């Protein structure tokens, strides 16, 4: 048998060994993502997949509430997932329920509450607490999301400003999309949730004295069969290389990691 023939046999054997490997040997990470971090995540994901060789599939869910599609509800009914990315408030509940691998939770970014109006509409004054209060009172309708922002506004901020009664009759939980469609006059939501919506203008953030900081975190789901790959994804999203995409999405990297 000549040398060229033996070399050809070795190549065939090597190729056969590669193709005989089970497809499960290539990591595939399943992520459930809530809306606040989604713009930065979707910009960063292609680079992670390219450099790591790890395939990521992504679905969405709310981070808090009683609906059937919240991240918590999905995990409780057995929807398979390796990583969750969501508001810290919702993640804390999942940690308490034992649905997260201990020590894997990482704060990725934080964002502030902002105010949006329909694109081209006059921009009201929100530069001081009193100006912001008057803007809320003058608005014909105010919308926000039904999760942490809505809870903060209706149970803490509006009562603190002494306008809970006035706001109750003109508030909805449709969110910023209702401003884009003309169904609401102003929206109060995290900046990272306002910026991706077309048809609205961000006025700015609400005054620091009444501000609420939303923190977005990631963690590995208990029972994941792709723990190492999941940790690599989380580390990538928390790295300095993610800074530009996070800033572009209206957030800043979390100060607590």
Tags for this model:
about 260 residues, D-Maltodextrin-Binding Protein, domain 2, ten-stranded mixed sheet, 10 strands, about 40% helix, elongated
Structure description:
The chain has 257 residues and is an alpha/beta fold. It has two domains: 27-109 and 215-253, Periplasmic binding protein-like II (D-Maltodextrin-Binding Protein, domain 2); 111-213, 3-Layer(aba) Sandwich (D-Maltodextrin-Binding Protein, domain 2). The protein has eleven helices and ten strands. It has helices at residues 3-20, 38-52, 71-76, 88-96, 129-138, 148-161, 164-168, 177-181, 191-194, 227-237, 243-248; strands at residues 28-33, 55-60, 83-87, 106-118, 142-143, 171-172, 186-190, 200-205, 213-220, 252-253. Strands 1, 2, 3, 4, 5, 6, 7, 8, 9 and 10 form a ten-stranded mixed beta sheet that branches. α2 (38-52) links the parallel β1 and β2 (55-60). α2 crosses α10 (227-237). The longest helix has 18 residues, at 3-20.
How would the blueprint of this fold be written?
Layout: H1 3-20, E1 28-33, H2 38-52, E2 55-60, H3 71-76, E3 83-87, H4 88-96, E4 106-118, H5 129-138, E5 142-143, H6 148-161, H7 164-168, E6 171-172, H8 177-181, E7 186-190, H9 191-194, E8 200-205, E9 213-220, H10 227-237, H11 243-248, E10 252-253
Parallel strand pairs: 1-2, 1-3, 5-6, 5-7
Antiparallel strand pairs: 3-9, 4-7, 4-8, 4-9, 4-10
Helix pairs in contact: 2-10
